[in-house]
Design brief:
The structure holds two protein chains of two kinds. Helices cover 29% and strands 18% of the residues of chain A. Chain A is of the alpha+beta class. The longest helix of chain A has 18 residues. The relative contact order of chain A is 0.14. Chain B has a five-stranded mixed sheet with strand order 2-1-5-3-4, with helices on both faces. In chain B, a hairpin with a 2-residue loop joins strand 3 and strand 4. The chains are: A alpha+beta, B alpha+beta.
Chain lengths: 316, 227
């Protein structure tokens, strides 16, 4: 691990200002992803700004009838919150399907949204990777691609976003609140937070240098049956091959977001309008323009069949 | 400091031009150390982009197994795991994968189990850490330690400290009403520590000897005793 200096921020705005002022600085909260990447020298910050002790660890009701989740709320606490379990069960289910109990006890809401890909070529520093080392090339294309993306990918990068939580946040129309180094706040719809790779896969979000996530808000509950189904190589503590998060209303309409297939939580609003017609109609729309490899084309069928099972369960 | 700022300027023009003599490196190291003591000051620009970065040191105080411990001159890179094993000479907590995948390093911090390998010691200032050494002693085993012995919940024993710390915290999580992936009803007021619940909640602790079924037996017994 490369040496780094360390400081503790006392306010979100101060943290953001420090991050912009200090070249090579990064925020650290739970650290469960960042420390792993620092040990591998994939991340080499010169300075860490500890934001874990900022008072951003509460979940509060909003005037609109939704919830405002502090950026530092731990994944365990968010999944266990009684309001989340009752009104946003999809979020609880997605969180509980991810990582291990130990990791969920540390990982934060904001950190989860900003976790890096699990593409094996991103992790292998002996291999070219446009995300890790811009312009060096993509080893995944033409390599082992079973776990990698099928839609929203580019000629420069076919990595996926590994978050389970983000799939639920996308289906729930969450909004990400931030503060800039200048102290300005803004609200970013979750659909716009993550960028598609294009030819700049190293730029993963629309956040500007130093911008700090302070909270994630959920609109008022939409009701319906919430189902999160994750398909993986072992029954627990594994990243998704694919996952399907759905909210299904009594009339058969609903929302669906899919994980393990794209560089961002994958939801196509026009496709989910077909939900009353069944899984195939939705999946056709979700994967219009998909560009799978021969090793991961199975994900298209797997999503369709998983969604079919999810719809059956929701209507049961 | 003048030399150090010259170095930074030089540094930024082109890393390929960088020619450091030994004296320049020492000056850069001193500048970085100064930064570490006043990280939010105006001089906080690290003189670092070069290949060599001087270690940054910090002091951390925490409670470990009920005792106040102070770590001085600690390299900021030190994980909680290495602080426990190397600095505090408490080797009970084990290093397995060192990447949060195996759970051998599990300790309990402020009542919650975490992977101590994926946590910086400097981030635990003022917190309370419980390791396997703090759960029980050879003469006075914790109930979970005794149950692991009784049910043969290990073979080589390397993952065992992490398994036991995790097991103790898992039963507390169930008691506190934290749901899991296999919990059927998210809105239920309480959960039974069934074998399925235990297996799911312990999935972050890998045992290459395969003592899993005996670990489930040990935990079930302790859970039953508590109920």
């Amino acid at each position: 691990m490369k040496a780094f200096s360390f400081s503790r921020a006392s306010t979100p705005a101060e943290a953001a200002a420090s991050a912009q002022r200090i070249e090579g600085a990064k925020f650290v909260a739970g650290g469960t992803n960042l420390l792993d990447l620092m040990k591998l020298e994939i991340e080499t910050p010169t300075h860490l700004i500890d934001v874990s002790k900022l008072k951003l660890d509460t979940i509060e009701a909003t005037a609109e009838g939704g919830l405002r989740i502090g950026a530092m709320v731990r994944n365990t606490d968010l999944a266990a919150d009684a309001r989340v379990r009752k009104d946003y069960a999809l979020l609880s289910r997605a969180l509980l399907a991810g990582a291990s109990g130990q990791l969920r006890n540390k990982a934060t809401t904001a950190g989860n949204l900003l976790q890096r890909t699990r593409c094996p070529y991103f992790y292998d520093t002996n291999q070219p990777c446009n995300k890790r080392s811009p312009g060096s090339g993509c080893s995944a294309i033409g390599g082992f691609t079973r776990m990698l993306g099928v839609v929203g990918v580019s000629d420069a990068c076919i990595a996926t976003n590994p978050s389970d939580m983000a799939i639920a946040m996308r289906a729930l129309d969450a909004v990400v609140e931030t503060v800039s180094p200048e102290g300005a706040t803004r609200a970013i719809p979750i659909a716009e937070l993550h960028r598609l790779p294009g030819d700049t896969p190293h730029i993963e979000t629309v956040l500007t240098p130093g911008e700090l996530i302070t909270a994630v808000t959920l609109p008022k509950p939409v009701g319906g049956k919430h189902v999160y189904r994750k398909v993986r190589d072992r029954a627990s503590y594994a990243f998704a091959l694919i996952s399907v998060g759905a909210i299904v209303q009594p009339d058969g309409s609903g929302r669906v977001a899919v994980g393990g297939v794209a560089p961002k939580p994958w939801r196509v609003e026009a496709a989910e309008k077909e939900m009353v017609r069944g899984a195939k109609a939705v999946t056709d729309g979700l994967f219009a323009g998909a560009n799978p490899t021969h090793e991961n084309a199975f994900k298209l069928t797997l999503v369709q069949r998983t969604l079919d099972a999810v719809l059956t369960e929701a209507r049961g | 400091m003048l030399r150090a700022s010259n170095l930074r300027e030089h540094d930024m023009t082109s890393p390929g031009d960088l020619e450091l003599n030994r004296r320049d490196l020492m000056v850069a190291a001193a500048a970085t150390a100064a930064v570490a003591s006043a990280p939010s000051g105006a001089g906080a620009q690290p003189a670092a982009a070069a290949a060599v970065r001087a270690p940054s040191k910090a002091t951390v105080s925490m409670m470990v197994n009920g005792e106040a411990r102070r770590l001085v001159d600690l390299d900021t890179r030190t994980t909680l795991l290495d602080a426990l094993r190397e600095s505090l000479q408490m080797p009970g907590t084990k290093k397995g994968c060192d990447h949060g995948q195996c759970g051998a390093c599990t300790v309990i911090v402020d009542g919650r189990r975490i992977n101590s390998c994926l946590s910086l010691a400097v981030m635990h200032e003022g917190e309370s850490v419980t390791t396997i050494e703090g759960l029980g002693t050879p003469d006075n085993l914790h109930a979970m330690q005794a149950a692991f012995v009784k049910h043969d919940g290990y073979q080589c024993g390397y993952c065992t400290p992490g398994q036991i710390c995790s097991a103790v915290a898992v039963l507390d999580e169930i008691k506190a009403g934290v749901p899991s992936h296999v919990t059927a009803d998210l809105t239920a007021a309480s959960y039974d520590p069934t074998a399925d619940e235990i297996r799911e909640r312990m999935s972050g602790n890998i045992c290459r000897c395969g003592a899993y079924s005996n670990i489930v037996d040990a935990m079930s017994e302790v859970a039953g005793r508590r109920a």
